[in-house]
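Before relying on records like the one below, remember that each one covers exactly one chain. Contacts with other chains, cofactors or solvent are not represented anywhere in the record.
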Amino acid sequence: MRRRFVTLDVFTNRRFTGNPLAVVVEGDGLDGKTMQAVAREFSHPETVFVLPPAEAAHRARLRIFTPASELPFAGHPTVGTAVALGLLDGGTAEREIVLEEGVGPVRCAMHALDRGRGHARFTIPRQPEALPTGADPAGIAAALGLRPDDLGCENYVPGNWTAGNAFTFVPVRGLQAIARSHPDPAHWPAAFGGDNPLGAFLFCRETVERGNALHARMFAPGLGVAEDPATGSAVAALAGIVARDGGFADGTHELRIEQGYEMGRPSLIVLTVATRGGRLIEAVIGGEAIVVTEGAIEA
């Protein structure tokens, strides 16, 4: 059966940058095994299948797959699918929609910027939560091809966090260290064994672009994603870290997070956090997405 799809580059306003995403807009009737095969065929970091929602008031139910496994939640698929559906629905006014994902309903706002480009933002569906950390800093550094003295940034320390997907967050000294980082297969299983956490999210305060708050990289070889150009679900968990350790006064703060530069796919994720008493009250993730291809796949 021929099923419509669209691909987009997400967290960017320029084609062939940002994070690629495939959205199969006619996913009803496919089983999980077939969805996984289609995701492998597209070989993008994630592929989304759009299904009828369980609640009539919601826009759609999503299933999200990497080339290797299914995820309950992901940020760039949420932003990209919201833009894709908004463009298909037509109109330019901002509208609010709810997308059903494995973590529950995700509230989004989307508006078209032109015929093939839009902006979307979503409120993170779960509060970030700190998890037990197994590996010591020396083991984490070795798994990333770094030295122990490469780790550390202001008040930030390595740790495991989740807001739907678990990651190990690794603050590093600066751009030079983050550029040298790479997964070391000899040490990776000891530091990041299994698939939970899903990957390692590295960040530093030094940035390529003036005005950005953080520079990041994310490695998830266990998901079939050697490196991700932009990781919204990691930034959702990062909101808890910056609220706790970032030294922000009470109020609302916008952080622009650059990622993907080492891959030649620069991306920009905008994280807005509301804090009170050193605690996160709300976090919103936003960015642009632009259509690259449209077509049909037999599945």
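The chain has two domains: 2-125+288-298, 129-285.
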